[in-house]
């Protein structure tokens, strides 16, 4: 048991080292990186489609798309005319920092990353593992759909504890479900009292504006931090 624990600690330590290296690249390029995480079917790709439709004419955006086997989601996002790097993880239930580093090398073959404002990482659908493996992101965004139930923040606390932003998705379905939106938010607050929570529907567009404003604020805050630090990217 002790050996297994040591192996886990060493694995996370190695991943953190690579994540820090990735973040150094992002900072050097002046790129803000957001890591989107959720269980399967929470609506990450649909949200990204709406986000790209709203922001791709204002910001220079690229996506690293994680999936276990296919490029179906990556193909959906490429329709918006932005660079999308697809990473198939095989049996792995999350993206790790080394996988994202490989994606960054592919991205560099397509463009100069210093031309970008925002890199969006869509992680593999899983409510546990993605939150344990940093990829170099500046902020973690967790999604929870109303169809998943009110208890998920309490049953899978790691992701909700680690999140810097929490999106409750598919709120257009609340009226046809036996679900208490306020209870979901209360359960999230029990795990992460200060996290910003946005309730939205990618289908109807309701609630998208606060999410888009949050993204813009993250980019501005990151640019300000780099300027204060005297980064070459400033």
Automatic annotation (TrEMBL):
CobW/HypB/UreG nucleotide-binding domain location: 39-197
Keywords linked to the UniProt accession: GTP-binding, Hydrolase, Metal-binding, Nickel, Nucleotide-binding, Zinc
Protein name as it appears in the record: Hydrogenase nickel incorporation protein HypB
Highest taxon of source: Bacteria
Gene that encodes the chain: hypB
Keyword Hydrolase tagged: yes
Native organism: Thermostichus vulcanus str. 'Rupite'
Family: Belongs to the SIMIBI class G3E GTPase family. HypB/HupM subfamily.
Pfam families named among the record's database cross-references: cobW (PF02492)
Lineage, broadest ranks: Bacteria, Bacillati, Cyanobacteriota, Cyanophyceae, Thermostichales
Record Gene3D superfamilies: P-loop containing nucleotide triphosphate hydrolases
């Amino acid at each position: 048991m002790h050996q297994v624990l040591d192996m886990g600690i060493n694995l996370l330590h190695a991943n953190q080292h690579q994540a820090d290296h990735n973040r150094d690249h992002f900072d050097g390029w002046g790129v803000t990186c957001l890591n989107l995480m959720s269980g399967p079917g929470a609506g990450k790709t649909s949200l990204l489609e709406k986000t790209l439709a709203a922001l791709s004419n204002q910001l220079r955006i690229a996506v690293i798309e994680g999936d276990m086997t296919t490029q179906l989601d990556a193909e959906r996002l490429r329709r918006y005319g932005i660079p999308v790097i697809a990473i198939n993880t095989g049996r792995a239930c999350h993206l790790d920092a080394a996988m994202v580093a490989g994606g960054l090398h592919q991205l560099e073959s397509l463009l100069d990353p210093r031309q970008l404002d925002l890199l969006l990482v869509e992680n593999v659908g899983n409510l546990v593992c993605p939150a344990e493996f940093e990829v170099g992101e500046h902020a973690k965004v967790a999604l929870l759909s109303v169809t998943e139930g009110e208890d998920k923040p309490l049953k899978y606390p790691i992701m909700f504890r680690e999140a810097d932003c929490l999106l409750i998705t598919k709120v257009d379905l609340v009226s046809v479900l036996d679900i208490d939106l306020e209870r979901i938010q209360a359960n999230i607050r029990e795990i992460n009292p200060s996290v910003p929570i946005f309730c939205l529907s990618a289908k109807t567009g309701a609630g998208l504006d606060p999410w888009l404003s949050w993204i813009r604020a993250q980019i501005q805050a990151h640019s300000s931090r780099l300027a204060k630090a005297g980064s070459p990217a400033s």
